[in-house]
């Protein structure tokens, strides 16, 4: 993600001033016309700015718009996040994603990770010293996209420039 609205500080190369984070698609499936947003991370200087809304808006637009509109014509986008990451969940909801499920014990994560949702270690576990993660699954499908989410998200993007 590149923020084209900021002017680099004196002595700072433009690439360092503009780099705002990363976003992409993962688990893309052409046969099923679906993809997941990820990896996704907004760097701290750009958090709580227009950058996240714009990045999600652009990636949703490209994925869910029909090929005649310049998009991929996917039917479904997924957004997965840690159940403890309330901020990420709010961003997804604000941009039109809807809660579908919580996948319990979905991921194995290192034990030194900051957030482990209070999930206890399991005595005798096959992967000792690791924690589990519960994952929130959210989705945005073509019918919601075409029924108003697209316009709402484009309006949010306009307001945040």
From TrEMBL:
InterPro entries: Acyl_CoA_acyltransferase, GNAT_dom, Ribosomal_N-acetyltransferase
Entry-linked Pfam families: Acetyltransf_3 (PF13302)
Boundaries of every N-acetyltransferase domain copy: 19-98
GO MF terms, alphabetically ordered: protein N-terminal-serine acetyltransferase activity; protein-N-terminal-alanine acetyltransferase activity
Protein name, UniProt field: N-acetyltransferase domain-containing protein
Originating organism: Hydnomerulius pinastri MD-312
